[in-house]
Amino acid sequence: MQGIVKPRVCTLPFLAPLISRELCLNNTAAVVVSSIRQYAVVPPTCDPKEKAMLARMLRVDHAGEYGANRIYAGQMAVLGRTQIRPLIQEMWDQEKKHLAKFNEVLAENRIRPTALLPLWNCAGFALGAASALLGKEGAMACTVAVEESISEHYNSQIRALMEVDPDRYTELLQMIVEFRDDEMEHHDTGLANDAETVPGYWLLKNVIQAGCKAAIYASERV
Ligand SMILES: [Fe+2]
Ligand SMILES: [Fe+2]
């Protein structure tokens, strides 16, 4: 093996395709293979089954981020003049970025959003506002419930894409993993800010999560 330098292994597998791979032979000649892809997040496909799978996935993700934005808007409408404002604003700002990215991805790939957006608009705002009426703790309990559901949803998508073809979906996986990490951070922020102290926490959490499951189910199909 002397004289042969092994290809550099990227320690961040999701970034690997974005990085030019150096193959150095005999320590002298270097062949640089550029593997920057021609698309932003979703690989182009003519396979109707793959198209349908990706459309379903991205449509429900977009709906989730849209709903999350409306929930934070509702919380802000009630708690916007309290000390908790900066914390809610910070999480909301991240949701705005998530939604903007999914808007872009849907447009790029000509995927229509769910027809249920008007419903999620009202339901999200109402849930955010109602939870905030229970006080800061109520808003945080809502955040914990919703963010846990969204994190689990993203985790199931990550598992599915990894099973199908992790190389093909590298960029999409990278985006979902990043957003999943943000959602988990929001979840932890809720817990750190007394979510569990609101009266009826477990009931509230379970009711909200049942609603999230129903919303995910519907948004994948309509
Ligand atoms: Fe999000
Ligand atoms: Fe979030």
Description:
There is one protein chain. With 222 residues, the protein is mostly helical. It folds into 2 domains: 1-36, no CATH class; 48-221, Ferritin, CATH 1.20.1260. It has 6 helices and 2 strands. It has helices at residues 48-79, 85-108, 117-133, 136-164, 170-192, 201-221; strands at residues 21-25, 29-33. It has a two-stranded antiparallel ribbon with strand order 1-2. Strand 1 (21-25) and strand 2 (29-33) form a beta hairpin. Helix 1 packs antiparallel against helix 4 (136-164) and helix 1 packs antiparallel against helix 6. The longest helix is centred in the first third of the chain and has 32 residues, at 48-79. The chain is elongated and about 50 Å long. It starts with 20 loop residues before the first strand and ends with a helix. The model is unreliable at 1-34 (pLDDT under 50). Residues 68, 91, 95, 147, 182-183, 186 line the site of one fe (ii) ion.
